[in-house]
Design brief:
This protein has 543 residues and is of the alpha+beta class. Helix content is 60%, strand content 15%. Residues 409-542 form the GGDEF domain.
Length: 543
C-alpha cells in the first residue's frame, strides 16, 4: 500500500472527544433520575395493569424495526395509551423499564449508558408530550395529538443531534419519513386503543398487541423486500461489469466499491492470502481516511479477523463496529472482507447477513475465476521451467505477427538449443539435466526484456520472440547471451557443471513474410550453428 503511515488512533480520530457518547450518558442519567422520581412518588404501581402493559411494550421494543440506522417501534402506541389512561408517572416508568429490558437482551449494547439510553429517550419523550399538553392526562383527541407530537419530537431531536455529531450513517431524509409514519400510527392506533381498553382492558390489550405487531411485520417484510431488491441490484451491477474485468481481483474491487452504496462504510478492505508471504495481505482498500492507513491499521484489523470461518460483528477497541465476512469456496477461506462502520454507528445482524449473502455469491465467482486462471496457467506453462510452452508461444507469435504486419513493425525469432545436453544427462544424470534446463530458463527471464516472450519449445530447445527488434540488434543481443551462458557454473553433487548454447535467428519481414516460414528458417539457422561446432549464433543471411 502506498501513502504515508499514521498511527491507528490518529487515522480514525478516536482520541477526540466523542460528544455523542457524552450526550448519551447525559440522557441516560436524566431518564434514570426521572424514573426513580416517579417511582418514589408511590402513585405508579398498579401491579396487574402495569405488568401487562410492561410485557406488551417489552415485546414491541424487542421487535422494533431498524431502518436507515434508526428504529421505529410499535411500543410507542402503548406508551401513548398508558399516558392517556394512567397518567405521566405510570407511562414514564413503563417506557423506561421496557426500553431497559429490551436493551439488556440486545447484542448491540455493551455499556451501562447504552442499556439505559433507549428507555431514557422513551421517558423523556413522554415527559415532553405531557408538558406540551399542560401536564393533564385525559383521552381527549387534541391532547393525544400533542402527546404524540412531543413524543416524536424527542426522536427527531435525537436524530438531528446524532447527525450533528457526525454519528449518523443513515439517510436523514428517509429517517424523517419513517418517524412521520411512526407518529401517524402512534396517534391513530393509540387513540382508538385507549377507547377500547377502557371497556375491556386485557382483551383490547391483547388485540392491540396483535394488530400492532401485524402492522410492523408488514413494514418489516416490505423493508426486507426492499433490501433484497437492493442486494439483487448490487449483484447485477457487479456481474454486469464482470465481462469487462480481466482478473478475479478486479471482481473483488468492483464488489468493494458497490458495497459502499449499501452499507456506507467508513473503510472497506479485502484481504487475500499470499502463498509467497505466508500471510493475508490487503488486496483492495476503499477508505474515507485523508491518507491511506499503514501497517498498524492492517495489523490491528487482521488480529481480529484471521482464522474466522464464519461472518461476525466485532467491537474493535479503536475502530468501533466492524463486519467481517470470510471469502471462501465450499471448504477453504482464501480471504476476508472487512468493513468498518462510520464512527458511532453499529452494524446489525441483519446487515451482516446481507453482506454475507452478497459477498458469498461474488466470492464463489472469484474463486472459480482463480481456478480458471490456474488451469489456464497449467495449460500455458511448462511444468519444469515455469516458462510458456510451445502451444502458447505459437498463439502469441500469431498475434504478434498480425500486429507487426498491421503497424509495419519488425520482430525476430531466436531458437536456442543447449549443446551436448544428452551428454550432460548421460554423465551426471537426469536430475542434473533438469537443473541445467531450470538454470537456463531463469537466465533468459533475467536477461531479456519484459516484453520479450520466452518459451520452452521442446526438450532442450527454447524459443524467444523479440518484438520490434531488427536483425542487427537481435544478433548483438544473442551474442551477449551466448557469452554470458559460457560463464555460468552450476554445482551438482559437489561437481562443477558448465554448458553452452547454439542459436538460430530469423527476422520479419526481412527473411520471410509468414511466421511459420520464419520458424522454419530459424530452425535451419540453428542447425547450421550446430554444424559449425556449436556455441554459435547464426542468422538466416549467413547460412
Amino acid at each position: 500500500m502506498a501513502g504515508k503511515t499514521k498511527k491507528l488512533s490518529k487515522n480514525y480520530s478516536m482520541h477526540k472527544i466523542n460528544y455523542w457518547q457524552i450526550w448519551r450518558v447525559t440522557v441516560s442519567l436524566a431518564g434514570f433520575i426521572l424514573t426513580v422520581f416517579y417511582l418514589l412518588k408511590g402513585s405508579v404501581l398498579q401491579p396487574g395493569d402495569f405488568f401487562a402493559l410492561l410485557i406488551v411494550s417489552f415485546i414491541l421494543e424487542l421487535t422494533a424495526i431498524e431502518i436507515y440506522g434508526s428504529q421505529i417501534k410499535g411500543s410507542y402506541v402503548f406508551y401513548l395509551v398508558t399516558l392517556l389512561l394512567k397518567g405521566t408517572g405510570f407511562a414514564v416508568v413503563l417506557s423506561f423499564l421496557a426500553g431497559l429490558l429490551a436493551s439488556l437482551l440486545s447484542r448491540d449494547e455493551k455499556t451501562l449508558p447504552g442499556y439505559f439510553f433507549e428507555g431514557a429517550k422513551n421517558s423523556l419523550g413522554i415527559l415532553l408530550g405531557s408538558y406540551l399538553a399542560g401536564y393533564l392526562p385525559g383521552e381527549d383527541f387534541f391532547l393525544a395529538l400533542i402527546y404524540t407530537a412531543g413524543f416524536i419530537l424527542v426522536d427527531a431531536v435525537f436524530m438531528i443531534l446524532k447527525a450533528f455529531f457526525g454519528e449518523n450513517a443513515g439517510s436523514t431524509k428517509e429517517e424523517i419519513f419513517y418517524y412521520g409514519l411512526n407518529g401517524f400510527l402512534t396517534f391513530t392506533a393509540g387513540v382508538l386503543l385507549a377507547e377500547a381498553i377502557k371497556k375491556n382492558f386485557y382483551q383490547a390489550l391483547f388485540l392491540g398487541l396483535l394488530l400492532t405487531e401485524a402492522f410492523y411485520l408488514v413494514v418489516k417484510i416490505n423493508q426486507k423486500l426492499l433490501n433484497q431488491n437492493l442486494d439483487y441490484v448490487t449483484l447485477w451491477n457487479i456481474s454486469r461489469t464482470f465481462h469487462r474485468l480481466e482478473t478475479p481481483d478486479d471482481m473483488l474491487k468492483a464488489m468493494l466499491q458497490e458495497l459502499k452504496n449499501i452499507f456506507s462504510y467508513h473503510t472497506g478492505v479485502i484481504y487475500t492470502y499470499s502463498e509467497s508471504l505466508g500471510k493475508y495481505i490487503p488486496r483492495y482498500l476503499n477508505t474515507d481516511f485523508p491518507e491511506l492507513p499503514g501497517p498498524a491499521f492492517h495489523n490491528s484489523l487482521l488480529s481480529e479477523v484471521e482464522n474466522r470461518k464464519t461472518a461476525a460483528l466485532i467491537k474493535h477497541p479503536q475502530l468501533g463496529s466492524i463486519a467481517v465476512v470470510p471469502l471462501q469456496n465450499r471448504r477453504d477461506v482464501f480471504g476476508y472482507l472487512v468493513i468498518v462502520a462510520p464512527k458511532g454507528q453499529n452494524y446489525s445482524q441483519s446487515q451482516l447477513r446481507r453482506l454475507e449473502n452478497i459477498s458469498g455469491q461474488v466470492a464463489l465467482a472469484v474463486y472459480n475465476g482463480y481456478l480458471y486462471l490456474r488451469l489456464k496457467e497449467f495449460a500455458q506453462k511448462d511444468e519444469l521451467t515455469g516458462l510458456y510452452n510451445r502451444r502458447y508461444f505459437l498463439e502469441r507469435l500469431n498475434e504478434e505477427h498480425l500486429r507487426s504486419r498491421r503497424h509495419k513493425l519488425n520482430y525476430t525469432i531466436v531458437l536456442l538449443d543447449i549443446d551436448y545436453f544428452k551428454k550432460i544427462n548421460d554423465t551426471y544424470g537426469h536430475d542434473c539435466g533438469d537443473l541445467v534446463l531450470n538454470d537456463f530458463g531463469r537466465f533468459l527471464k533475467d536477461a531479456l526484456r519484459r516484453t520479450d516472450l520466452i518459451a520452452r519449445y521442446g526438450g532442450e530447445e527454447f524459443v524467444v520472440l523479440l518484438p520490434q527488434t531488427g536483425k542487427k540488434e537481435a544478433y548483438l543481443l544473442a551474442e551477449r547471451l551466448r557469452e554470458k551462458v559460457k560463464e555460468r557454473v552450476l554445482i551438482f553433487q559437489g561437481q562443477k557443471v558448465k554448458y553452452t548454447v547454439s542459436m538460430g535467428l530469423a527476422t520479419y519481414p526481412e527473411d520471410a513474410k509468414e511466421y511459420r516460414e520464419l520458424l522454419s528458417l530459424a530452425d535451419k539457422a540453428l542447425y547450421q550453428a550446430k554444424n559449425r561446432g556449436r556455441d554459435k549464433v547464426v542468422m538466416v543471411n549467413n547460412f
